């Protein structure tokens, strides 16, 4: 049977994950709404030059990176990668201290 402490840690981890996912969807929603507003402004003020594309492209890169990190699609953004990197850095620090 699982201890209360372990169950509480699992709950906190799941709660943190839900906040991350919710944060991504909020980011995506704001991106979509602002994009629509920018398109309307662009088409009303200067339809001959579609400058909104540059805004959408730049911000879109950020949304994609946020999504990759949130859903752990890219190995460079996964929790496993972070854990491996932390262990690697701690090991290097440990080795530095043994040589002093």
Automatic annotation (TrEMBL):
Keywords, comma-separated and alphabetical: Kinase, Membrane, Transferase, Transmembrane, Transmembrane helix
Transmembrane segment boundaries: 21-43, 49-68
Domain 2TM: residue ranges: 12-90
A Pfam entry, by short name: 2TM
Gene Ontology MF terms: kinase activity
Statement: the UniProt record of this protein carries the keyword Kinase: yes
Keyword Transferase among record annotations: yes
Designated name of the protein: 2TM domain-containing protein
Organism the protein comes from: Flavobacterium resistens
Lineage summary: Bacteria, Pseudomonadati, Bacteroidota, Flavobacteriia, Flavobacteriales
């Amino acid at each position: 049977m699982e201890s209360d402490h372990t169950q509480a840690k699992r709950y906190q981890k799941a709660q943190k994950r839900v906040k991350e996912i919710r944060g991504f969807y909020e980011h995506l929603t704001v991106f979509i709404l602002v994009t629509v507003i920018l398109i309307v402004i662009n088409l009303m003020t200067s339809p001959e030059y579609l400058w909104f594309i540059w805004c959408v492209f730049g911000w879109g890169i950020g949304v994609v990176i946020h999504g990759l990190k949130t859903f752990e699609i890219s190995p460079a953004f996964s929790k496993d990668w972070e854990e491996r990197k932390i262990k690697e850095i701690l090991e290097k620090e440990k080795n530095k201290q043994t040589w002093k």
